Amino acid sequence: MATISLCMIVRNEEETIARCLASVQPIVDEMIIVDTGSSDRTIEIVSEFTPHVYHFQWIDDFAEARNFSFSKATMDYILWLDADDILSADNIHKLMLLKNALDASVDSVLMKYVLGRDEYGKPSYSVKRNRLVRRERDFKWKGFVHEYLEVGGNIMDSDIEVEHRSIKTTASDRNLKIYEKHDADGKRFTPRDLYYYANELYDHGLYKRAKRYYLRFLRTGQGWVEDNIQACGKLSDCCHFLGEHDKSLDWAFRSFHYDAPRADLCCRIGYYFMQKKQWDRSIFWYKTASRLDLPKEMQGFVNYACWTWLPHLQLCVCYSSIGKFELAYEHNELARTYRPDDPRILHNKDYLETVRASLNQGVTAFEVTP
């Protein structure tokens, strides 16, 4: 059986750290907690779970802090988490089965990182992370903000899920300030730094500046394909928010340069034509999105709405707008299979059933055309 070190960096996490540590306590063989300057009860709480608590002088560099935490591990494999992450009992069971059978040739295990769930408990947004790594490979973290673990070798995919459960309701400007400080100091940004700096600007509604850094990122020609596609989508959104609607469409199409069409980009294009009431074009793109299968090997961020119910809901609107109520009803029902209690979908169902009943009283067939 493999052994596992849990390695974490924390700061002022008294509200969530006990929940995180309790969730993984049954599966890990040691807990390495590195505190970067807590002023609350974080250290006191952590000390109830492990004696391995270390202090790290914060230098505005997440990778350095994580590498320090990894340096303290002594077990076969390292599992890393954030303080507001948890593993459910079901996923702990899956990890236990993996731990019992894990071959020493495996260098890293991918796990799904669920960033949010809808009211039905289904993932709404996720991404895959190299979450469990073999310690002796000495993999290093890179990047002062939005750090990533640079791995290689034998990488195993798994169906284990780590869930992000933040209780914070407001977005922090911590990362943005770090980027702005490094930018003002003239620090050289890698392509990945440019991309994530743009994301921080976007998340804070600074769309003109975000657009500039997304463009700088893409012009390097050195970005990861998933980041390139996401950058095109974010550029499309920036242009939309800035009133540059034709450019918004251009950037959505530009994403196809990097890979086959993705459902979220097809939905963006469909929305563009919907806003212009160009129903046939909107229908084409939403139907395209509805027919795409989520690639199993895809490791980038996944917006599940665009791969499941959203295209069908929008097709309901499009078909209803041109009087094709039977098709509208069909797609609304498909949307309802994913979201059975959604008020919008239930409203559409009631409306369309009323329309169908009225038409059936006077017309025997649904052949209403625009």
TrEMBL record:
Please name the Gene3D superfamilies in this protein's record: Spore Coat Polysaccharide Biosynthesis Protein SpsA, Chain A, Tetratricopeptide repeat domain
Q: What range(s) does the Glycosyltransferase 2-like domain occupy?
A: 5-138
Superkingdom, natural source: Bacteria
Pfam families in the record: Glycos_transf_2
Q: What is this protein called?
A: Beta 1,4 glucosyltransferase
The organism of origin for this protein: Paenibacillus woosongensis
